[in-house]
Amino acid sequence: MISKRIIIMGVFLTLISFTYLGAQSGIVPYDIERVGLSGWQFLKITYDARYSAIGGAFTALSHGNSGAIFGNPSALVDVGNVDVQFTNVNWIADIKGQSIAIAKNFGRMGVLGFSVVSLNVGEMYETINRVIPGETRTEAVVTGNTFTAGDLAAGISYAKRVTDRLSIGANVRWIREEIAEVSMNNVSVDFGTTYYTGFKSLRLCMVARNFGPDAHLVGWSEEYQMEAVDIRMPLDFRVGIGYDFFEGSSHVLSCAIEGTHPNDGPEKINIGLEYKFGNLLVLRSGYRVNYDEEDFTLGGEINYTIGGLTARVGYAYINFGILEQVHMFTLGLSL
Length: 335
Hints:
By secondary structure, the chain is mostly beta strands. It is about 10% helix and about 55% strand. It is elongated.
């Protein structure tokens, strides 16, 4: 048993070592890496303190509660009965976000979930380009007016255990973006699978996120000095592997590593660790490879159980380099 654990740990350490060596190899990336080819960027934010604290490596570490809606929806099958959670996000540039997730297990029929995500950038001062009298060039002028911008996503989720080793899940969400008088609506679909190999807790997982048609901005005019264009969805394919060490004891160490292939940037790697001490305390950390500014993440969670009711409070810290830090809090309740 000890030798098997050593082998599994060796696999994780090897993958992490290759990741580090690749990052330090000195290979110069291409100047153009599909960056800026999609919109709906708010869909990339992980609206769950747990998944943010483990470096975004949620593909193989999504289990146990309604937060799986924001990670791997197939992991909703682990919801025991009813689970509700609320997350507050203090994003970069004073952007604020909130999310609510609810999931109910209906036994053989599967698990049904609902979620709402809201993001708001606050008020900004309006600036226009005004022609300088007697000249052909323009200058930027602050009008004194203000405007705001925000995003909204509301959806339904479903997950079902196909066999004792395989589960599947999906999200369907209505999404909206608006800035001043300009807005657009669309539909987003996510898919996820979790497969337990049969060797202890070793699992292979896959998530495909943000499928949807191109959207069209409504409200463009001469005032904005730009023609209307179609906006692509930020497609994201992820494959991950996870394993729980010391399972069955009061101490459990969960490890995961995943690769992500977005359609608007270079491939990335997320690494996550989660240490559980009984049913009370959880410590988390992660590292993100090949991101522009993001790298290490930290966080934790406290659980308190009374009878059949369990409450949890989670926190996540994300380092954004020159963009400073992001803080995230999640409050959850399981029945």
